[in-house]
């Protein structure tokens, strides 16, 4: 496995943390986050092309989420979903568990009203999709850092709680990222904050492919290094992309790395 830095030009987003990036086909979509501490930068949707390395801002319609930090986002087909996060300036202030969809072809936002109990209010969590389902992991809740796991079925518009991994296998954390493995057989948990910035990576196999098994992973090349509050996504060919975040010196980053899991 090996990391490499990606080129960036065009309407490049400012350095930020606590945002999200989501890959759909050959494009990457960035939403939210903070440049100044605890101040949401807005609700603009940025689009990045892997083909030419150019950023642009989309002209969105509908009801967007209010500006927020520490939310999570993932895509099913050509629809982007954004869940939770907080809008307040103080830790825990304005925490939410709302769910929005963004239809990319029409650039339209919709606020959803799902069935079933949603995940508790949280921020600094992570979310990804496998098939028609969204998975939400961890974050900061009222009782501290979490490592719980929830699933949202986009076809039935329903939330359900799943079994959490053990605290020994994957400690509760915020500012981490959960991304799917190639072939939809499992999920990667990457770095995050558990009292300090982490540079670890774990793989969690989904129940239908062998059941709830965790293992730690290591990679060569130029590592992104310890960081939290960053964003990550998986490309169609199974590579992992990491963008921005906070390093161990509490500095905001604008770098971007890609991990070839087959190298």
UniProtKB/TrEMBL annotation:
Gene3D superfamilies linked: Kelch-type beta propeller
GO MF, one annotated term: enzyme regulator activity
Keyword Transcription regulation annotated: no
GO cellular component: a single term: cytosol
Keywords: Iron, Kelch repeat, Repeat
Signal sequence, start to end: none
GO terms of biological process kind: glucosinolate metabolic process
InterPro entries: Kelch-typ_b-propeller
Cofactor entry: Fe(2+)
Record Pfam families: Kelch_KLHDC2_KLHL20_DRC7 (PF24681)
Name under which the protein is recorded: Nitrile-specifier protein 5
């Amino acid at each position: 496995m090996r990391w490499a830095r990606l080129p960036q030009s065009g309407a490049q987003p400012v350095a930020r943390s606590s945002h999200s990036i989501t890959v759909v086909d050959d494009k990457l979509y960035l939403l939210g986050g903070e440049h100044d501490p605890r101040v949401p930068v807005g609700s603009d949707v940025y689009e990045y092309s892997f083909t030419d390395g150019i950023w642009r801002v989309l002209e969105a319609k509908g009801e967007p989420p209010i500006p927020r930090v520490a939310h999570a986002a993932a895509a099913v087909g050509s629809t982007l979903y954004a869940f939770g996060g907080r809008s307040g300036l103080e830790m825990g202030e304005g925490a939410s568990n709302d769910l929005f969809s963004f239809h990319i072809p029409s650039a339209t936002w919709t606020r959803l009203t799902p069935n079933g109990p949603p995940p508790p209010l949280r921020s600094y969590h992570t979310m990804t999709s496998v098939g028609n389902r969204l998975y939400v992991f961890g974050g900061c809740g009222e009782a501290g850092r979490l490592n719980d796991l929830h699933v949202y079925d986009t076809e039935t518009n329903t939330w359900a709680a799943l079994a959490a991994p053990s605290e020994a296998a994957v400690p509760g954390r915020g500012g981490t990222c959960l991304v799917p493995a190639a072939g939809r057989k499992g999920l990667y948990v990457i770095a995050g904050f558990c009292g300090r910035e982490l540079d670890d990576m774990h793989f969690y196999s989904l129940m239908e492919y062998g059941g709830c098994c965790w293992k730690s992973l290591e990679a060569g090349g130029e590592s992104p290094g310890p960081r939290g509050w960053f964003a990550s996504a998986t490309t169609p060919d199974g590579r992992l992309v990491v963008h921005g975040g906070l390093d161990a010196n509490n500095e905001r980053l604008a770098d971007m790395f890609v991990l070839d899991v087959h190298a």
